[in-house]
Amino acid sequence: MIRPVKQFRAGVHAAIICGRRPTRRSVTGFTLVELLVVIAIIGVLVGLLLPAVQTAREAARRSSCQNNLKQMGLAILNHENVKKAYPAGYAYSSGASRCWGWGTIILPYMERMDLYQTLQPDKRSLSTIVSATASQADISALQTKIAGYRCPSDQSPDLRDKSQFESPTVAASLFGASPPFQVATSNYVGSSGGVWISGTDATYPTGYGAPYKDFDCGGIFFGQMAATTSGSGTMPLGVKVSDITDGTSKVIMMGERERKGLAALWAGTGNAADFGPAGNTGILFRPNFNQNWDVYDLYGTDNRGKGPGSKHPNGVQYLFADGSVAFISDAITVLSALCNRADRSPRVVDVSRY
For an engineered disulfide with 238, which of 86, 163, 212, 299 has Cβ 3.0 to 4.6 Å away? Predict the structure, then answer.
């Protein structure tokens, strides 16, 4: 028999008056063991996911670096379309002078006409600017960090000062002897090839031969005599497409260099007469400098700052003369052949092009 609602309410009220309350189910929390198990599970999940996250981040950085190379390739090809020649490796003026490099020459095609107009490389020599009396505008321009010239995987300092690197025994400065200030870092170097084409010394050229080609080792980039140190209004030109007889898709034009290799510069060379960290290897790499190996031991003291290198695992990204980009394994043994524009032995490497 169901009791009426009024009778049920009356019974509850009477129970409360008598000191009895309706029972309520008790609530309990996590035990210490349960909490430790949850923490352990979370730790395992983080341990499994962290490598995947790091891999994804490196893939994104590598893609960004690849895009940098593509943009530089496009800029160089635009330069070739306008000037009918690739840019010179650097604008050689005289002796052990500081000289504008290809990174400065292509600034107008990299959408950095502002820097180009400030520096006026077509009217002034780099040695003239890098002096104790340099204007603040020139110093600021030469110390500008250009994102398109930096690999996001690399942790090089913004200025190429040897005191900030894991440095070997090198010259007094990484930008020539005793400069009044340092210049901005880059992570990309042009290929100067690996076989002698011209130079006054067949073993280690220290001079310059007509027509003022500096150490032309068969690559895409090498020094060319500037028309004049000031007021010329033009920059020297480099090789033509017709000079690349091995084929533009088979010749490396540019590669990476990371912090352990002393990185690079975009402005130019610190000492045009020296193929070393204080000289034109700041903007160039030669994969077979002494004709006895292909890839430099970047961890030694004699060759650091001369070859290519990368923070990307297991290889380096290279820009080819046709504007394509390829990731090439560190284990490759034909790098020097790929860097020569006309050695009549084009090599085919099974790599993905971008």
Answer: 86
